[in-house]
Fold this sequence. Notes:
It is built from 2 helices and 10 strands, in the order αββββββββββα. It is of the alpha+beta class.
Amino acid sequence: MDAPDATSTRPYLIRALYEWCTDNGFTPYLAVAVDETVQVPREYVKDGEIVLNISFDATSSLKLGNDFIEFKGRFAGTARDIMVPINQVIAIYARENGQGMAFPLGPPGGVKITAPSSTNLLSVRNDDQAAAPEVKVVPLASVESGRRNNEQNEEPDPPRPPATGLRPALKRVK
């Protein structure tokens, strides 16, 4: 299997960060870009996005698959079936400290991402439409621009989430 045929790393990273959150007593939150493929309560969508608590206590029948994240969750006391395509996940992070990982918005179904060797941009092409024009996707942030901002102190450090005072702790039982 060569690189273009390899499966996406996104579902594996989501599962790893979910496990890290739960192992450390944190609450895993999932940020999702909502479109017609996402099955969530639309009344909770704000600016085309929704943040979902995917902790063990907040969900039932959670399945973190390679193509979809599925579970049942309660919204205002009503159980709802939730289904999120993996390519619509924007980020997974711990509520308590904000640590996690952000992802670029994935391409729609049937579109593959390829990385040219001479540039840091990604080109997106649809195998079904060979004559379709290529679309360039720019990374969210480049390392060089981050260094430049930090050197000139143009932007302050991002705000930290408020501390809740709850820390994981071991309790010895005899």
